[in-house]
Specification:
By secondary structure, the chain is an all-alpha fold. 69% of the residues lie in helices and 0% in strands. The chain has helices spanning 5-28, 38-67, 81-86.
């Protein structure tokens, strides 16, 4: 998974951040399968894309800046599961 145990932990960290973003979107409750009126969903969707998502993506970006050794790679200097999770 990584070239060292430390890289493996970093890959897991980035992948978990990505999962947190997906979970938060699901829990926000604005999908077409969620309960509530379209107006309520629209309000939640706007809040998600203007406030929540940018904040969460900034955290992922900050972590990647710490874990990447080379531009284009989330962790270290080669493709890893962290790159896949971000994609």
């Amino acid at each position: 998974m990584g070239e060292s145990l430390e890289e493996e932990a970093m890959i897991d960290c980035v992948a978990e951040h990505c999962r947190d973003v997906k979970d938060a979107a699901r829990f926000k409750g604005f999908s077409k399968f969620s309960k509530g009126t379209e107006e309520e969903k629209s309000t939640k969707r706007k809040e998600w894309f203007t406030q929540d998502l940018p904040t969460m993506l900034k955290k992922v970006e900050n972590d990647v800046q710490l874990t990447s050794k080379e531009k284009g790679f989330a962790v270290g200097n080669s493709l890893t599961y962290a790159n896949v999770a971000i994609w």
